[in-house]
Amino acid sequence: MVGGYLVPTFCPLCVSRCGARAEVTDGAFRALFPDPSHPTGQAICVKGKAAPEIVYHPSRLLHPLRRTRPKGAPDPGWERITWDEALGTVAARLKTAAAAGGPESVGFSSSSPSTSAISDAVDWVRRLIRAFGSPNYSNYMELCGWGRYLAPLYTFGASVPGVYVPDLENAGCILFWGYNPSVARLAHATSTVAAVARGAKLIVVDPRKAGLAAKADHWLRVRPGTDAALALSLTHVMIENGWYDSDFVRDWTNAADEVDGERVWAMLAARCAEFPPEVAEGITGVPAADIVAAAKTLWEARPVAFYTWSGLEQHSGATQTIRAVNVLYALTGSLDVPGGNVLFEAVPSNPVDGREFLSDARPPAMGAGQRPLGPARYEFVTGEDLYTAALDGRIKALVSFGGNMVMAHADSVRGREALRGLDFFVQADLFMTPTAELADIVLPVTTPFESEALKIGFEYSQEAQSLVQLRQPLVAPRGEARSDLQIVFDLATRLGLGAAFWEGDIEAAFRHQLAPSGITLEELRAHPEGVRVPLVTRYRKYADTGFATPSRKVELYSATLAAHGYSPLPAFEEPRTSPRSRKDLADRYPLVLSCAKSLFFCETQHRQVAALRKSAPDPQVEMHPSTAAARGITAGDWVSLDTPHGRVRARAKLNHSLDPQVVFGQHGWWEACDELRLPGYPPYGPDSANLNLVLRQTPSDPISGSSPLRASVCDVSPLGAAALQ
Ligand SMILES: Nc1nc2c(c(=O)[nH]1)N[C@H]1C(S)=C(S)[C@@H](COP(=O)(O)OP(=O)(O)OC[C@H]3O[C@@H](n4cnc5c(=O)[nH]c(N)nc54)[C@H](O)[C@@H]3O)O[C@H]1N2
Ligand SMILES: Nc1nc2c(c(=O)[nH]1)N[C@H]1C(S)=C(S)[C@@H](COP(=O)(O)OP(=O)(O)OC[C@H]3O[C@@H](n4cnc5c(=O)[nH]c(N)nc54)[C@H](O)[C@@H]3O)O[C@H]1N2
Ligand code: SF4
Ligand SMILES: [Mo]
């Protein structure tokens, strides 16, 4: 490291946001190392280690581009333009659209903050949208955040486990349901390993024995999409045996309320009694004895800290499944107690998400008519509704801060048509993607290592929440790339919204945000490792004012859901795309297709990065050896993965832990890695490896609009030598 130095920083490439130290030598960013003095810095992953390669990748976008050929032409004819021209055009087109169709005819979208550094800017993006006056923001809420942030509002009036996070340091029992932090969130994985080492129990509900499932006291191998039946069965066992916190249930849930002369508690018990363990075994595939044993552990090892994620989000019955797990959790009495799911104190700051610009006069978000309790209620638009609104002309212009929609949403072909049909589409991104290719203007964005960002609290624990860090740019931006933050502020100013954006002065905006904390920007600049504010956790905060639900209690029975015609008690429905539901398709497509994330890539990104692609060169589909053998498939063979909507290719990986009827695919395969001479795959058409080409956004969850990505009928077959040419 001659001539080099280490800069305290954090990696925002994914949701983990690991504390790190960056080596900068001769003006270049060389390496990232874990920083154990940082509350999230125990380790960094392969993607973090590859960060310099991402920054210096030859295919980075370096200049604003304008399309010169019509959409649908094989080559967009990109032409380099200046920032002034790019932003001027964007502002003019948005103003024209808003003047003709109202601000709601302009949609906004972004990448999910869990898969990208848009987390640096997401509150400011939201501020821009609200100041502009559009209710329409699409950011995968229905696939990624609904079950952690918004669906739990109907049970707890709070975001559990999204904001009331698992207190892993003090948990007696950790319950991970459809969540694999070893791949998805390193900071949770390292704390869980430490918790298990000190004796905490671990329960993992997952169709695959993935990650920490191998270390778990109970691994419940659930059939994809039947989790609600499992949760109701566990709850049944807890109720039958008195394994629940009766004081909490009596004082803080609506168990004692009466509906049509019947007590909620009796109604819930009756609903759960529909799923005794033997019945649940037939539905979920989890042995009855394991259900009873796991319920006992939940009780005996409490307090319970839990987290649910993608495994529960992407289903036709997502909301009721989340409700079932949330109700189960309520019975443990572990909410907001040490070792449960806790809302840690936050460093005081001014919110900057633009909530002050909301008004009752504004029209509701797209989708509010069909799903009034869904994401639209909170100004989020589902992918399905965004495409529909673009196709029928209610949305005419779209501003996208990252996100690779056509690859990340199911119905890729419909997505392409929707984006092509827009009058105007601007995409800000690091790389040219199948989605950016459909834009009129593409804006080059910096990696987070070239830009500054303010992070107030790291959410995992009280210690982590107490840390405020101003991440410094390690190196100058490549080419003409600008940060999302800068683009938001510049665009706002050109749209005449300068007053809401400190006239484009980002520093002034940060100062406003920090004001209540008493911390100054100068202090943060002098301490790149961050400044800690001593905070003391308060527990059981509900005792002050009750829960933020209509009844002020935890709602085992939801009158809100009932009023909209949904089941007020958690309910199980067979996934609508499974072979058991689609008996008409089951002969031809007898297997169940689910999917999971890759350790080496974030979602549809990073296949071009040699340091990562070398470990995972090809798209994979996992299946049980007997499933493969029955079809003449051996490990490593290229196979055709078939659904009623088409076929895509992948290489067979054999996995003994799977149910022979279940296969697991990977989405996100499109990009080539030139350095390793590994191919790309077309997003559409016969040679595609794009899983979302053969999945649909419908039939979606009636409450949230979540797409059924994880329990679809399918089959696999060897891909003939001819097809490989
Ligand atoms: N390395 C890496 N990290 C990431 C990402 C990435 O792409 N790569 N993406 C980021 C994003 S955007 C997100 S949302 C998070 C997601 O993080 P996770 O939710 O942990 O991601 P997954 O691996 O997709 O799903 C978790 C588990 O759900 C299981 N599963 C699948 N179907 C079902 C089911 O029907 N029921 C149950 N109970 N389980 C099921 C899978 O086998 C998988 O092990 O990760 C973030 N972090
Ligand atoms: N079949 C299937 N489909 C899925 C999922 C699944 O598990 N299975 N997971 C779903 C989930 S949970 C999610 S969150 C979505 C994710 O969908 P997306 O949010 O679209 O995530 P990515 O595919 O990672 O694409 C991120 C895009 O943003 C760009 N980008 C990265 N960092 C930045 C940045 O800092 N600023 C800007 N402006 N751009 C940036 C990248 O280059 C890339 O083009 O996909 C969903 N789709
Ligand atoms: S898990 Fe990896 S990619 Fe995610 S923040 Fe940590 S180092 Fe970065
Ligand atoms: Mo996500």
How would you describe the overall organization of this protein?
This protein is α/β, with parallel strands linked by helices and 725 residues long. The chain folds into four domains: 4-55, Phosphorylase Kinase, domain 1 (2-Layer Sandwich); 65-144 and 349-532, Rossmann fold (3-Layer(aba) Sandwich); 159-342, Dimethylsulfoxide Reductase, domain 2 (3-Layer(aba) Sandwich), CATH 3.40.228; 583-724, Barwin-like endoglucanases, CATH 2.40.40. 30% of the residues lie in helices and 16% in strands. The strands form seven sheets. It has a seven-stranded mixed beta sheet, sandwiched between helices. The radius of gyration is 25 Å and the shape is globular. The model has no long low-confidence stretch (mean pLDDT 97). Molybdenum atom binds at residues 112, 114-115, 140, 144.
Please give the share of residues in helix.
Answer: 25-40%
What general outline do the C-alpha atoms trace? globular
Total domain modules: 4
Question: How would you describe the oligomerization state of the chains in this entry?
Answer: single chain
Distance between the termini: 47 Å
Bound molecules: ligand MGD, iron/sulfur cluster, molybdenum atom
Structural class: alpha/beta
Salient structural properties:
alpha/beta, Rossmann fold, 4 domains, seven-stranded mixed beta sheet, 27 helices, binds ligand MGD, binds iron/sulfur cluster, binds molybdenum atom
